[in-house]
Amino acid sequence: MDTSNAENADPAGASQGATSVSGAGPGGRPPAFDGLAAAVLDDRGTVVGWTGTAQELTGFCADEVHGRPVRELVADLPLDPCRATQWPATGRVRLGHRCGTTIEVTFRTTRVNGSADFLVLAAPTPHVADHQHGAALLRALSAQSGITIALHDTDLTTVQTNAVPDTPDPRPVQPGARLGDVLCAEDAQSIEAVLRQVLETGIPVLGRNQHVSWRHHPVPRHALSLSAFRLEDARGRPAGVAALYMDDTDQLRARRHLDLSREVAERVGESRDIVRTAQDLADVLVPAFGDLAAVDLARAVFDGDEPGERLGGGDLHLRNAALAPATAAWPPGIQRGNLVPPLSDHPLLRRFQRGETVVYGRDDYIALIGGPQPAEQLLPHDTHAVMVAPLHARGLTLGAIVVWRTVPSDPFTADETDLMRQIASRGALAIDNARRYTREHRAAMALQQRLLPPATTDTPAAETAGVYLPTGRGAGTRGDWYDAIPLPSLRLALVAGDVIGHGIPASATMGRLRAAIQTLADLEPEPDELLTRIADLVQRLAAEAPPGDHDVMGATCLYAVYDPVTRRCAMASAGHPPPVLVRPDGSAEAVELLPGPPLAVCGMPYETTTIDLEPGSVLALYTDGLVHRGAHDVGDGLGRLTDALATSCRPDRALDGTGRALLADLVDEAPRDDATLLLARTRAVPGEDTAHWQIPADPAAVSDARAWATRQLTAWGLDALVITTELIVSELVTNAIRYGRPPAELRLIRHHVLVCEVTDSSSAQPRLRRARTTDEGGRGLFLVAQLAERWGCRHGQNRKTIWSEQPIACAH
């Protein structure tokens, strides 16, 4: 272009009214520009070169500005354009646009090599500021240790990144690399799928959790938070993707550790069973902490005892209590219940025995267990690290937690060692609590079993079988008991009771009550009178108890007496569930009786109920633990028990097996209360083995009574007992006529003993005394006591019975 013409031209004016010229925007406004304009000026400031970006910035084409002074395009040149050597290296000016407006631009100048010309680069000032701020932001983010930035083009090739792999050779990732060159193939594909979706949709991804491993160093894995945004050019077209990765490994590990600690606190220690507690501890560690876990306990701990101290190698007296997961392919030497083999005297073992949590490498662990050959039996496959933590509580080392990590798991860290120390401390307390409970439970069970009667008895009145099942919860037994007490005249007392409380105190109370009932039963009171006396005893026991235990002292009790001669059973209840009667035909029902108050309550009467029992009937006495099942109603439980007894109590089935089977079917796996069941299959004395004679109120009847007794013994073939029996009958009948009131009766019963009974209507209590030499009487009961094996007196309603027993040498 001619310079003179250019000097006379007014580029700004020439643009007026020519808005259709290329470069002008709608309404005469300059179009959006997001690039870098370039022009070449000679040493006089004349335009000698003009680029397309300069045309895009100003709206003037090269033909319009070529050869013209630059001052015609610039509104405020900072100096004389004719002295180009004085041009600043950078600055800001207002540049005229063809549409008549001005644009503030920031420029930079540089001399063209080998020439006097200058290259001028310019861009709109706001864009330059944005780029400067963006570059500053990018530099600041790139400098953060936990933040990785990667810019990818539309092919997801890395354009720029500050990524440095955590590998033995940590060289920065170079531009041009793809994710598959840096990350494991599976991780790279997963992230590329996310970036491609962002590139296609323009929808950003924020805080996506992603786990990755470096391609040449797959262990450890890193937890990342991925955010991705699409990059666009000035026209809004996709230009690439910016990915921001924040390393959440430490935060995620801290959250996992916190979750694991909370789970240990919630799960470990709920059970009072030692093995169950150990299994809970192993279960929470896998897979949250390791790939495999075992809990080994000192052998003494399983029995509730305190383990001994041990220092150095050899047999540590440990046995495996728990493995997790139980379905893993454990080596042959590691199985539930196995003894831990002797170990070498390794320095790390000594540290463990001093209470430290130690981490073994594979080689150290092989040395500890005795070399490569034992390792085949004791080392899980692909193990690369083992952590062993002592279970130390109250000055005792109860055992150890062993956790294995296999390839490709991460190695153990110092933070994880500290965490395991805390877990082991909590687990040790839980196991020690279970151990102490086991010791107390065993003591209570031993006391309870010693205080209970034999499981089975065989008497002329009935055969009995008792079964006792302790509670699965709480601190041991709860004082349930049963008893079968032989009484004079072939009778049998049946007892079932339930003491309030648990543990050794309940067992001790139960023992005192059982002894008291046996003593009172030997005095042969009616059932209601016996319970009244026992209630008085419970009140005294409550008064002797510590102040805080007054309200928990008490019991329920059912007392029944069966007479095989009359085939009648008298019973009374002190707040106890009614017995169940199973008749010989297989029908069963609960006995209707009026229960009195529990034994802790005095002042309320008890009532005796009498029922007839056929020979072969089964009377079932039990405690409420047998009919309480979960949230079910007691009535439902009694119905289930009645049905089960009707089905199970068959004449051809032994009572002890029947009782065990019933408890197994009716009681929960972990019962809330003790369960006791006493089964009694009744018998009857045949009529030909008893004889009755009414005693007239006449002293002459004494000789008749002796004669009658002699004839009866002769008929039974008991001639050897005739003389002693005549003397006993003579004394007892004489006392009945002299001191008693009619009517009176003499009864003989033949079984394994000969029972002689004299009953009258007087309630006076006979008393054994030593008569003086000058006394005419008072020697009758003394003589009876010398001739009989035992004798006694029992009181009934408006009557008393004096009895004696003589052994029969041979069965008839």
Report the average pLDDT across residues.
Answer: 82
Structural class: alpha+beta
Proportion of residues in β-strands: 25-35%
The strand line-up of the biggest sheet is 16-17-26-25-22-23
Rg over C-alpha atoms, rounded to the nearest angstrom: 52 Å
- Which of globular, elongated, flat, extended, rod-shaped describes the shape? rod-shaped
Query: How many helices does DSSP assign?
Result: 21
How would you characterize the largest beta sheet? 6 strands, antiparallel
Catalogue the unreliable spans: 1-28, 771-778
Number of strands: 31
N-to-C terminal Cα separation, in Å?
155 Å
User: Approximately how much helix is present in the residues?
Assistant: 25-40%
Write up what this structure looks like:
With 812 residues, the chain is an alpha+beta fold. Helix content is 32%, strand content 27%. It contains 21 helices and 31 strands. The strands form 6 sheets. The protein has a 6-stranded antiparallel β-sheet, covered by helices on one side. A 5-stranded antiparallel β-sheet has the order 2-1-5-4-3. A 5-stranded antiparallel β-sheet has the order 7-6-10-9-8, sandwiched between helices. A hairpin with a 5-residue loop joins strand 22 (580-582) and strand 23 (588-590). The N and C termini lie far apart (155 Å). 37% of the residues are buried.
Question: Care to give the gist of this entry?
Answer:
The chain has 812 residues and is α+β, with helices and mostly antiparallel strands.
